Inverse folding.
DNA sequence: GTCTGGCATCTGGTATGCCAGAAACCAGGG
DNA sequence: CCCTGGTTTCTGGCATACCAGATGCCAGAC
């Protein structure tokens, strides 16, 4: 009986979840700022396209509205939210706050081996010249920040940052391509890793915060295309 | 025509919103930890009690699930979430992160008059002996923190903290009643106000963070009744 | 040509019905 | 008495029908 290796069967993801994922990926992948007017999502149209009834669509849209991806005008329709520069900056600031706290908590609580493996996990940061494959680096960049947040060990912070990340992901990538930010960014990452390894909570927190706020300031200066 | 003073009419709050508010207040006001087993919310029962159909109830429950107040087990029912000590501590840590960032931003951006009015808005903090009316003080306490968050001027941080606050409100009140926390708390508030007035961003941030993390540590030590 | 008011139509909000999965219950065998 | 299998009942997931508000169009007045 023991070696039958029965695993719990999948609860067959609900249509609502499927609709949510489909819509979310559609929204995050589209170029919101390319379209001139507002982008409206038609419930009946979506229901027909996805082949399900309006009910799960509506529930998915409710969640997306909660998360700030769409806005619902009663009797008018639901529209994809175009985030303003100010909102993006605010998200990055909130993110900086949470990630710097995660860095502090990591210094206090993360096990030694987890801190030690940072350096091994991101060898790119110590090799210089990532410009030949900026896309890869951009991915490593995001993984790095998620790793720090995870090391903090606080599930609430991880959740909140997860939501913020989806909103800001695109921005972060484009910001990297402007000026010398990529090089600066890497240097800052290295210093953050060193601070974590030394378990210097104050320093790690400060570096992470300044790194995040630097991005916020950058968007504040050069992000006028968002409005 | 100009002096008719026509104001936009109210869009007659949707049933979904009404159901949401009813359920949320019911959940936050109930004593979750008194009940032994899980508390289940029956869709049909709620629908009959509130006098609306199941649809708005379901949509309200979806939002509440997003916000972490209820948990939905497919085909089983939706249950009121009992937060563990660990989760509460995590929320307070996240809150501390966000509020300390708000304090920093307030030092940088808030207008002088807003910072100056802090001292006037919370005279209780400068008078000592608030123990005769601990409930009032507890309210002032919460208003104080919300004020700081508002002074930060970051809408994202305000939103996130708003959600966290509802979850933690009860805890904060009971924590005040344990030991000498109220007196300490007031002293810390005064120092925070002074730092803000001096626009000392580093100090204000640190004080707010330590104030919040102090509460987290307190719950960590004495919050075993939550599990 | 422009403006206005009514009408056709579309869209989201709500109510309801049906179905499958889950729990509770019950009867029969050991 | 316990265990087991089936059956009943209940619950939530989904589909659909209907209603009211919003929009757009068009005819008629000027």
């Amino acid at each position: 009986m023991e070696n039958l290796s029965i695993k719990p069967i999948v609860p067959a993801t609900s249509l609502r979840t499927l609709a949510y994922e489909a819509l979310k990926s559609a929204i995050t992948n589209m170029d919101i700022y390319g379209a001139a007017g507002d982008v409206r999502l038609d419930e009946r149209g979506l229901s027909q396209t996805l082949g399900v009834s309006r009910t799960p669509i509506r529930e998915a849209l409710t969640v997306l509205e909660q998360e700030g991806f769409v806005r619902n005008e009663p009797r008018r329709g639901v529209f994809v939210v175009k985030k303003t520069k100010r909102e993006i900056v605010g998200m990055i600031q909130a993110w900086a706050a949470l990630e710097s706290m995660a860095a502090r908590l990591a210094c206090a609580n993360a096990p030694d081996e987890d801190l030690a493996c940072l350096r091994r996990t991101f060898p790119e940061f110590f090799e210089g010249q990532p410009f030949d494959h900026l896309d890869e680096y951009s991915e490593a960049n995001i993984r790095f920040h998620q790793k720090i947040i995870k090391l903090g060990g606080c599930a609430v912070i991880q959740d909140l940052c997860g939501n913020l990340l989806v909103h800001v992901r695109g921005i972060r990538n484009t910001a990297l391509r402007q000026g010398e930010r990529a090089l600066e960014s890497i240097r800052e990452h290295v210093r953050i890793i060193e601070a974590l390894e030394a378990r210097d909570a104050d320093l790690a927190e400060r570096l992470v915060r300044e790194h995040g706020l630097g991005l916020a300031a950058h968007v504040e200066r050069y992000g006028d295309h968002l409005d």
Q: What stands out?
A: The longest strand of chain A covers residues 70-73.
